[in-house]
Structure prediction request, 102 residues.
Amino acid sequence: MSGGSTAVRVAGGLLPPDVLDAVLAGSLDGLGSGDYHLGGESPREAAAREWTYLLGVYRRFRDDLARLPDNDPAIGLTRERWLTQLLASLRYGRCRPPAPVA
Prediction:
């Protein structure tokens, strides 16, 4: 492996050294803002924006969860305040809850 990738140790064949070098050099196809339909925003900026948003969502969910009684399974709260928001940020859209088991 060449370049400044000495902090990364590749074990096995999951990431060949030439692919890792291309990622570090920024020359690997599929990593630009146009590839993700982000306009002028870089993938790094978009990821940071989503991370910041989801971190706030999770903190509010965690606070709401702490206010529930111990015997509350928090199914609705988890679905509406965390999973729905997480899946929407990942562009899954609105997921229907599973059908009850008979």
Observations:
- DSSP finds three helices and no strands in the chain.
